[in-house]
Design goal:
The longest helix has 20 residues. Helix 2 packs antiparallel against helix 3. By secondary structure, the chain is an alpha+beta fold. It is globular and about 55 Å long. A hairpin with a 2-residue loop joins strand 17 and strand 18.
Amino acid sequence: MSELKDVLNSGLKDMIFSEDMKNKVLEECRQSKKAANKRRKSFRKTMVPILVCLALCISVTAAAKVLLWNDIVAEKYGVNSKNKVQEGTLNDGLAELVNVSDQNNGITIEVIQTVATVNRLDIYLKVQAKNAEMAKQLTEMAADVDVTFERTKCYSYGVAGSVQSYTEGDDYLIYNLDVDIDDAENGMDGDKIYLKIYNFSSVSQENSDMVIEGEWNLSWTIRATDQERSVEFNKEYAIYGKKIKLQKLVLTPTTIKIYLDQELIEDQGIWSANIYATQKTDKEADDSIAGYIDENLYTVEWRAWSGIPLLVYNGWTEKEQKDAVSQIEDGTYQGEYINEGEWLQDDRHKFVDPWQVTDIKMADGTSFYALEDSFTTTQGGIDNCYVIHSSYNGYLMMEDVESIRLGDCVIPLEDGTEK
């Protein structure tokens, strides 16, 4: 029993199960459970396969962390065998352990984990270097990446240089590659992905000529969840004093998409604008929330991204706008504008993108813990809407979301209609 206890405590963290192995283990559990229910004289005989099955899968629920999640990735997403997040990821197809790799020039790249929804795919890669010195070099390098699918369309993907885990002296790193999907109608589940990674090059100015050449090709079949929560609004709100009309929100376990009426935004010329804010008093303001400005503490001003007053910029033709930006870049512009770098040298000043999700409030009053890892992309011209696509490295319990905040605009989900 002491050996079994050791196995249970270790959680089989180094084992990888194929689909066939998983099915056999689960079937053995079911058959052993039936036998165990008979008890009586067969008690001793049935205990052995039950214990074997326990050692292999640690019960169906607890085994999910072993079967579906790499330890490093599980920690980042807040997954463990006892919490509600784990229950949510059990059978929805969100997470999958992957075991494909390629080796070149002293580096082995292995796909260890995917986390996939209808509109986002996160790929976690283990990059094994030939020694600790090379691994340390790789922390200051990024690779070129090509991503293609057999049927799914993707409209953007990050560079395979987002280091998720590295400890000084290790000979490997864990990277994250994120892919935004533009084909929710067909979905990724069951699709074949082809990932090519090539030529790690330095992102450091000090070692700008450092390059590790090579090509690594990986392909596998994606497992993805189609779970989402869609809420329609068709309702006006205010964001930093400007009107927006929210058409709908679409939530998945790792993303939020916000659809805003395109015409109203274009009438005000605010889609490419930013917020320049000045602190009202000398009292230190709370800047703990990225992208959020409290108008009780700051005065805010919308300006074109070049720092030109919005009213002035919107009154120009497209050619005049381009000419002004060129003049700012070469230092010949004579009009009034704010230089962002100089502006931020004053601690009382802030500069933020208004189109960022700054809070996701849950039903228990807490805020979604993974929002600090989020990033936002924007697109226009989709069903007469501008779309804000906010992604995060964490598992969102969609049904527990009570409200979201876009900039300073709080949007209760009860304002809309669930679809």
